[in-house]
Amino acid sequence: MSNTNVETITSTADRIKLSLAVLVLIAGIVAYSMLDGQPGLVRVGSFVASVIVAALVAWWSEPGRRSIVFARDSYTEMRRVVWPQRKETMRMTGIVFAFVFAIAFFLWIVDKAFQWIVYGVLLGWN
User: Fold this and answer.
1) What's the rounded mean pLDDT across residues 107-113?
2) What is residue 13's predicted lDDT score, i.e. its pLDDT?
3) So what's the pLDDT on residue 97?
C-alpha cells in the first residue's frame, strides 16, 4: 500500500498553531468543569467560545485551510447527489426486511438441525 497521498504537517508554525488550537479546546473543557457553580449559559458559553477560538486558530494554518476547502467541496458534491424517491426507498426497505427475515429463518433452521444432530443423534439426550 502506498502512502503517497498522505499529507503531513511540515511547517513548524502550523504545528504550533494546531497545538495552540488543541490547548484552547482543552482550556474550554477545563473552564466548563471549573465553572460548576455558575449558570449553565456561562458554562456552555465558555466552551463554545473556546471552540470558536480554536477553529479560528486552526483555520489560519495550512491544514485548516485545506480542511475548509475539503468541507466546501464535500458540501457541493453532496448537493449533486440524486436522492431516491419515496416509492423506491420503501420498495428497497421492504426488500431488505424480506432478505433479513429469509436469512433469519434459514439460520433458525440450520440451528435446529445442528441441535437435533448434536443433542439427539450424537449425545442421545432427546
Assistant:
1) 97
2) 83
3) 98
Cα separation of 126 and 115, whole Å? 10
Q: How many domains does the chain have?
A: 2
Q: By three-state DSSP, how is residue 64 classified?
A: helix
Do the domain assignments include residue 106? yes
Give 24's pLDDT tier (boundaries 50, 70, 90). very high
Whether residue 1 lies inside any domain: the answer is no
One domain, residues 71 and 97: no
62 and 29, same domain (yes or no): yes
What per-residue string of b and e applies to 50-87 under the rule 16 or more CB within 10 Å gives b? beebbeebbeebebbeeeeeeeeeeeeeeeeeeeeeee
CA atoms within 13 A on the CB side of 66: 7
Q: Is 32 within 8 Å of 44 (Cβ atoms)?
A: yes
